[in-house]
Amino acid sequence: MKRVDFLIKKNKPKQSLVYDSYWKFAAERQEIFFRKINNEDSPWTKDKVLNDFKFTNVYRATDRVSQFLIKNVIYKGDQNPTEVIFRILLFKIFNKIETWKTIEKNVGVISYANYHYENLNKILGDARKQGVSIYSGAYIMASPNEYGYALKHQNHLKLIEQIISSGLPEKIGNIKSIESLFNHLLVYPSIGPFLAYQYAIDINYSNLTKFSEMEFVKAGPGAKDGIRKCFSDLGEYSEEDIIRMMADNQNEEFERLSLSFKNLWGRQLQLIDCQNLFCEVDKYLRVTNPEVKSLSNRKRIKQKYKQSSLETIRYFFPAKWKLEIS
């Protein structure tokens, strides 16, 4: 999906009446992020919707779960490709910090070298029996039923085993782009386009790859909803074209609206961030502009915002991004 592919398309997308909400939301949500890390007193915004409801950060890599993944999963432990990919998949399939900590508490150092299906199955099964939700509610995780086990987590453990045994870790050094990594992941049971893209981004946080996040994007269901709200007609553009257009035009759009957007210590919005922003703007508009319809026609935001009592996050990013955190 190169820039030339959509610039030559004559039938351009048409912005909707709420199009500017995308940029206003991004700027204000990022202001909240910096006010929090600067230890300013709450409330961090005058926007009632942003105060009352839970929204992810503008930059995917700054969210609590992504930060835990980068610091405590990817860069903590053996950097052998098999070990790194095993840890990433084990964490991301459940996508829940508490599940990772439960496993860690029971096995010590989490590694493929000391992995035993029976042991992990028992740990996760015992947690379920105690009424603990072992999966995050961030997105629906389908069970890869091809493996024939009764419980979802059992099938997911077998999925991880297949990915490792099929040689993905050994192939990783010869994979030349995020799109190629996406396609490699797409062949496994229950990993559709949305998850394949998310996992490709997660693997690319590691030192196993050095791909630009501006190479490739895949719109998820939430992003497609946000796009349909911000554009009354897509013209000849795909959802992915729209996301790239937003990323390419970000500086001009913030300037047009006189918005002072504070990027991530010099890192501009990447395609993954612009994709996620459409998901969040879709949610935001459910409250501010309920008359604007989306593909799924969801009408409410599930999660209210609750101020966390957890320790302050010490932000950590891949060294290859060369961010100077101030």
Shape: globular
SS-based structural class? Answer: mainly alpha
**Biggest sheet details:** 2 strands, antiparallel
Radius of gyration: 20 Å
Number of DSSP-assigned strands: 2
Q: Treating each run of at least 4 consecutive H or I residues as one helix, how many helices?
A: 15
Number of discrete domains = 2
State the strand order across the main sheet: 1-2
**Cα distance spanning the termini:** 34 Å
Would you give an account of this structure?
49% of the residues lie in helices and 2% in strands. The chain is built from 15 helices and 2 strands. It has a two-stranded antiparallel sheet with strand order 1-2.
Short description:
The chain is mainly α and 326 residues long.
Structure keywords:
15 helices; 2% strand; 2 strands; two-stranded antiparallel sheet; 2 domains; 326 residues; single chain; mainly alpha; globular
SSE layout and pairings?
Elements: H1 3-7, E1 14-15, H2 21-37, H3 48-52, H4 64-74, H5 81-94, H6 97-107, H7 117-129, H8 152-165, H9 168-171, H10 178-186, H11 193-204, H12 221-230, E2 231-233, H13 239-248, H14 250-256, H15 271-288
Antiparallel strand pairs: 1-2
